Amino acid sequence: MTRTIKIVLCTLLLAYVPEAFGRPKRVDHIPNGNVNGCANCHTDPNGGSSRNIFGQVIENNFLTASGIDGDVQWGPALAGQDADSDGATNGAELQDPTGSWSRGQSQPGDASLVTKPWDANSKPQVQQPSQPQNPNITLSVTSLNFANVVKVGSRGEQSFKINNTGQGDLVVSAITVSDSAYIVAPSQVTVAPDSSAGIGVSFAPQTEGDHNAQLTVSSNDPDQPEITVQLRATAQPVPQIPRLQVVLSTLDFGLVRLDSTRFQTLWIQNSGNSSLSVTLTALDTLSTPSPNFVLTPDSLSIAPDDSAMVQVAFSPTDTVAYVHTLTVRSNDPDLPETTVDLRGTGFEFQGRLTIDLNPASGNQGISRIETAPGDTTTLEIFLNIVPFLPAFNLQIEWDGRGLTFLGTATLLTSPSDPPILSRDTTGTVVGLKISIPTRETAERD
Question: Is the pLDDT of residue 389 over 90?
Fold first, then answer.
C-alpha cells in the first residue's frame, strides 16, 4: 500500500514541474525581452512563480494557445495597452511603441531605456520638449504727442525704442503709419535678445489741422505679431509774413555838376509769402526830407517772391559832399525799417578853359593849325580855378592837314584814360600839355 502511494506522488510532481518554471522561450517573444528576462511576466525573476500584471494580460489575451505551448502574440494591440497603468504603454516601455517589431528582427530602440511594463513605478522618462527661442517685443512708449508746435512745411522729431526681452532675434519686418504726414526711420530692423533699437518718427505736415494716427510695428513675436503706438499732432498754418530785402546798402552818385541830375536804381525784394508794403524817405543830416534826392516811387506794394525798382535822382544845389539817408519802412515784422546811404558831390566850373595849338607865346586861343606829315603838334590846355575836376577828354578833328579843337570837354569821374591834370597846393588845375604826331596813315579821331 505504501509503494503505490509513492508512485502516485512522483507522477504528480513530474506533472507539476513544467508549470513551476518560466518559459525561457517566451523571453524572445516580446521586444527587448532579454533585458528583464522572466521578470517580464513573473513575480519571481527566475520564473516559475505567479504572473505579474503584464504576464496576466499576456496569458489571458495574447497567447496563441493556452498552456505551455502558447506563443506570445506581440503586435499593436498588446503594445498599445498599459498593463501597469503608469501612463506609458507596454510598447513604449519595451521601446516598440507601435508594436511593429516581430520575432527574428533586431531589437528596437535603446535597450538602456527599457522599463518594466508591470511596475507602475518604472516608466520611460518623458523628455520635456525644448522651449522655443522666441523673441519678446516691448516698446518704450505707447503714444507720441507732437502737440501743436509744428507748422505746415516744417518738421518735428521724436523717437522711441523697440526692446527684445526674449531669447531669439526679434525681426521687425515693417513699421507703418496710417497718416503720410509721419515718416519712420528705420522701417525694418533686427533686434538681438536683451537689446533695443531706436526708431525715429518725423512729423512733416503739408496740411494744417489735426493729424492723429496709428503706428504699427510688425514682427516675429509669436505672442504680439503687431503692436501699436498712437501718434497725435496738430499742424499749425504757415504764417503769412512779408520779408524785406534791400539789395544795396549805399548809392554813390559821385561828382554831379550843379543844376544837373544823375539817376541810379535801387531794387527792393520780397522773399516772404505775403504782400510787402514799403514807404521810402530821403532824409538829410538833420533828418528832414532831402530836396537833393528824389525817389520815384516813394511807396510800393510788392507781391511774394517778387521785386520792384525805385529810381533815385541826385540833383546837387551846392558844391559840397552830400551824405544823406534813404529810410525804407515796411510791414515786415522782423525788419520794419532799414536804411541806405545816399552819397554824391556837387561841383561847378568857376574858371575858364583855353586851348592853344601853337605853343609860341602871344597867340593863345588858336583853335586850328596846318600840319604836314611827320610834324608833331603840341597842345597846351589851360584851366584856371576849376575845382573837383579830376580829368577830361578833348574831342579833336583831323582831316590830314590840320587839327581843329571842337570846343567840348567831357568830365570823367575817374582819371584813368585821359592824362591827369596837375594841381598846385590850392587844388587849382595848372595845365596839361599833349604832343600829337601827325602821319598820313593815321586814322581820323
Answer: no
- Would the pLDDT of 18 be above 80? no
CA pair distance 368, 402, nearest whole angstrom = 7
Distance CA 236, CA 227 (A): 29
**Cell numbers at residue 261, please?**
541830375
Which of 269, 147, 162 has its CA nearest to residue 216? Answer: 162
Eight-class DSSP state of 161: E
| DSSP codes joined into one string, 253-278 | EEEEETT--EEEEEEEEE-SSSPEEE
As a whole number of angstroms, the distance between CA 291 and CA 295 comes to 10
Cell matching residue 285: 543830416
What is the pLDDT at residue 382? 52
Q: What would the grid cell of residue 245 be?
A: 530785402
Q: Grid coordinates representing 350?
A: 568857376
Dist CA 75 CA 79 (whole Å): 6
Q: What is the DSSP letter of 67?
A: G
In the three-class reduction of DSSP (H, G, I as helix; E, B as strand; rest coil), residue 423 is classed as: strand
Helix (H, G, I), strand (E, B) or coil at 322: strand
Spatial contact of 88 and 115, defined as CB atoms under 8 Å apart: yes
Quick check: 361 pLDDT over 90? no
Average pLDDT on 400-419 reads 43
Average pLDDT over residues 28-33: 90
- From the list 265, 262, 268, the residue with the least C-alpha distance to 313 is 262
Instruction: Please give the Cα distance from 429 to 445 (Å, whole number).
Output: 26
Cα distance between residue 326 and residue 293, in whole Å: 9
- Read off φ and ψ for residue 210, nearest 5 degrees: -75, 140
Task: State which amino acid sits at residue 147.
Answer: A
> Residue 90, CB half-sphere, CA atoms under 13 Å: how many?
26
Question: What residues contact residue 132 under an 8 Å CB cut-off, 6+ apart?
Answer: 168
Closest alpha carbon to 28 in 90, 63, 71: 71
d(CA 385, CA 255): 17
The answer to whether the beta carbons of residues 199 and 159 sit under 8 Å apart is yes
Can you name the residues that pair with 422 across neighbouring β-strands? 431
Residue 238 pLDDT more than 50?
A: yes
For residue 407, pLDDT over 60 is answered with no
**CA-based nearest residue to 432, from 383, 385, 386:** 383
According to DSSP, the residues that pair with 235 across neighbouring strands are 209
Largest separation between any pair of C-alpha atoms in the chain: 208
- Confidence grade of residue 85 (pLDDT, cut at 50, 70, 90): very high
pLDDT for 330 beyond 50: yes
Strand pairing category for 226-232 and 143-145: parallel
